[in-house]
Amino acid sequence: MSLSTWISYTIACILLISPPGPTVTYLITTSMTHGKKTAYEIVWGSFWGGLVCLILSFIGIGAILKTSGTLYAILRLLGIAYLIYLGIKSFLDANKVKDKTEKMVPPEKGEAFKNGFLLIFLNPKNIIFFASFLPQFINHNSPFLLQTTILSLTYLIVGLINDYLYSFFASNIGNVLGKHSEKWIAYIGGVAMILSAIIVVFQNF
Question: Which domain holds residue 151?
Answer without folding.
Answer: 22-202
